[in-house]
Write a structure and sequence with these properties.
The complex is a heterodimer of chains A (424) and B (615). Chain A has 424 residues and is mainly alpha-helical. Chain A has 2 domains: 2-187 and 348-422, no CATH class; 193-271, no CATH class. Chain A is built from 17 helices and 3 strands. Chain A has helices at 2-10, 13-33, 48-67, 71-76, 78-95, 116-131, 149-163, 169-173, 179-184, 189-207, 210-227, 234-259, 262-271, 281-293, 322-353, 358-382, 400-419; strands at residues 97-99, 102-108, 111-113. The longest helix of chain A has 32 residues, at 322-353. The two termini of chain A are 20 Å apart. Chain B is α+β, with helices and mostly antiparallel strands. In chain B, strands 2, 3, 4, 5, 10, 18 and 19 form a 7-stranded mixed beta sheet that branches. Chain B has a 5-stranded antiparallel beta sheet with strand order 12-11-23-22-21. In chain B, strand 8 and strand 9 (208-211) form a beta hairpin. Classes of the chains: A mainly alpha (424), B alpha+beta (615). At the A-B interface, helix 9, helix 14, helix 15 and helix 16 of A face helix 1 and strand 1 of B. The complex binds zinc ion.
Amino acid sequence: MRENRSIFANLDWISILIYFILVFLGWISIYSAVYNEEHNRITDLSQEYGRQLVFIGGSFVLIVLILFTDGRLFEKLAWPVYGISLLVLAGVLVAGTTVSGARSWYQFGGFSLQPSEFMKFATALALSKLLSGDGRENRTGARKKMPNKALIALVILLPVAFILPQPDLGSALVYTAFLFPLHREGMPAWVIFSLMWAGALFLLSLLIDSTWLMGGMTAVALGALWFFRKERGSWLVLGVIWVLSLGVALSVDYAFNNLLEDRHRNRINILIGKAEDPTGIGYNTNQSMIAIGSGGFAGKGFLQGTQTKFDFVPEQSTDFIFCTIGEEFGFLGSLLVVLLFSTLLVRLILLAERQRSSFGRIYGYCVASVLFLHFAVNIAMTIGLAPVIGIPLPFFSYGGSSLWGFTLLFFIFIRLDAYRMQIL
Amino acid sequence: MKRSTLLFGLIGTTALLFLIRLFYLQIIDDSYKLNADSNAIRKLKLYAPRGTIYDREGRVMVANKPAYDLLAIPNQVETFDTLKLCTLVGIEPRELRQKLRDARAYSRFKPSPIVQQMNQVDYARLGEQLYAFKGFYIQKRTLRRYPEGGAANVVGFVGEVTDAYIQKNPEYDRGDLHGVTGIEKSYEKALRGIKGTRYVLVDVHNREKGSFRNGLYDTTAVPGVDLVATIDLELQRYAEELMRNKRGSIVAIEPSTGEIILLVSSPTFDPNLLVGRARSANYNALERDSFAKPLYDRALLAEYPPGSPFKLINALVGLQLGVMDTLKTYTCHHGFHAGSLHVACHCGTSYPLRLIPGIAKSCNNFFCSTFRDIINSRPTSREGMNTWSEHVKSFGLGQFLDNDLPTGRKGFVPDADYYNKAFGYTQWKAVSTISLGIGQGELLLTPLQMANVAATIANRGYFYTPHIVRSAGDTAIARFSKPRRTLVDPKHFEPVVEGMHQVFEAGTARGSRIESIPMCGKTGTAENPHGQDHSIFIAFAPKDEPKIAISIIVENGYWGSRWAAPIASLLMERYLHDSISRPELEKRMMEGDLSQEYLQNADRRLVRKKPGAEP
Ligand SMILES: [Zn+2]
């Protein structure tokens, strides 16, 4: 009895409050997006908001279950959960149902389940377990040897290997989030920076003519050389970076022009905005920007949106749910959502840093990083800063699998955090 | 540097970047916002004009004309002067309120049509006053127009998509038109084109303020593809006139291509009735006419026992199987007799008949005997029946031919299994099924299939799948260009063709003969248990290198030579010579009126339907 009370006293109510606010805002956005006078009972199960209400109810059950589970159990179960999730994920390639081109779903009667949404928390558990050693505590604070790098890569890349062929590029991309906990545990920052640099170069070399790009890079390199002229050996480092960058740019250019078929080329051109295609793939982004832009400072008011109803913005209640906030609650609403997410993420990192067990800390970093990647990619896509990559906005988007997946991910950490005091 | 700095930094940068971008989109950039005097972006559909349909000579069968729809978006509609709007567009207030209720039930945010297919005058009058009716707007579209009329069953008509149809075909929206029958239906995909979209800004006074972002997101409509039909519209209209006050159908096919020259179903209707605001009233009237059934395409959907023309196929199968040759004779004794079974014959001969005169005289005994010999040419009747059935089906009977017609029936060619079931035992004899010999019994053919039989004989053994459209846009329809051979050797066709020629020269159709064109044909009378027999005729001309093959059925038209043969002869002459040398025959056929027959039939049926309670 005493223990339970202490758990509730130790829960981080700030994060939990933000979670509930986000879930609530998400639900009213879904309600608004599919609102229809004929079906205005909020529990109408023929409508997405009615079903989302059921999913939210399910989340509450999950939350209660997690909070009453012994905190140590999550660490013990990390590997079995990972193994089972991986099997279920692999199975979808065989027994799954294809929805809009991707074989990502299990269909049981009227109920469908997307295993990749549950793989994230399973991978987070397994990675935390792996990085924290066998659960033995490192009380002296001395950094332990990192486990086998190949094993780490395997734990992260196995789910990716099953998700990519579905194909579901967005869900696979999320796994880059696990680089952040790795960095926290000792991986040097240049690995992340060079990956970001390569990604940016990749996009740039598609967008800009290769001669210009290489000329520009050479100019930057020369400038940097002059800037760092007093540093010993700077010319060597810069030279290596310069050669590697040229290599990336040239090979992307070559691959794009020689290895891809026309239809792939067209698709990429549209994705990166080189070709105008208002009714095709670029259409979603245009419509979404119109909706958000038309919201103005204070928005049009709840249920008053004209652009986020039915046919203007596709995927309105899932990937593009942020438009509804933007249109109906304007800049103020958008600001609130961005601030809520940022506060939650910062809070999660602070919580992670105060963990006494390295398992808890690493898991906290995993949670923050995965949520951050979803938040960043989803909203960037909605406001036209990134190509359309279909991943949901955590706690917001319609869908039982994603809501439950994120709830598990998030509340296991809340439970671990509440349990931290019991670790001596 | 602490290890948490990187993630903190990224989160901060991302949030800042988002807020700058959102600030720009929502507050600074006016192009995404709706400025002070515009309160909505309206998405207008740009209807693609449907493709034009031409006949085989390039005459326009179906074209377009402009029309205007009044639409409403329920959640933008504000209180308005109901009476004034009703006066402007000419509908009852009750109807208007009902339409608005329906629109609201469908969607508050999507536009629904309130008044459709207004003409230019209504449109001009309403346009000036529209500012008083918020939430309403006018959308231009095109309607069908039939400059020459005629061929209503061939081209078909368009109608508004139903909600159930939209469920299955999400590319359609409420108020869209689609082909309901005819070519409009079977070539819907080609004809419909691709809709476009235009975004316009609308101010608080319901006025359009120009295009949104200079039309950046607009798409133009792509017009539907033009079609060239295989029909000869002039001949079709002439044929429809010949069939006036008669019920039945005419199908004519060009044997060398399978192109359908004529597809007449009588009685027919004026396709222009199904356009414009009177459409639904007119449609209901046509639909409810259960007596004449003008919407029912007899040429494709009616199935008849073919009667005597089928004797030609039995002759061909008999020749192919070797149970007879051109010299073999049968002598008629007023019919075919086997035990207690009698099939009467009125050929009037009592001397041994060979094949060619047998066809010309249409002797029942000759073909019953041939059929019996076909069935008995195999060890059991069952094997004989299946052999016969297989050969008959090779003429394209008893099956859909995968043609491009919007509707059809398979007809029926029985086989051994069918009779095993029908008789309840397997030891049945040829004579039990002898009526097949003269095209009666269980056999069923559609008029289209009968015309195809004529074309197959004209070609001496093969046919092209009959089709109704020659080309779509610049591309010819290629899938019908492969000939389909029957199981009967081409050499066996010559004597049958000669027999058909003799039908005109000395046989049952000699009254319809003309000097200038060597014609071949076969009359028939299909037994009709409900009244007067049907007059049937199949023919082709000229005898060598035939240009047209035809089948005609005149319901309750007594016998073949009375109505069907003369009409066929007139049509073939008109098609081949562009003129008519027998005006008095033409006049007699046009004025011929069988409506009394149909009335009597209806009376007879009514009498029969009366409940038998009275003593
Ligand atoms: Zn006879």
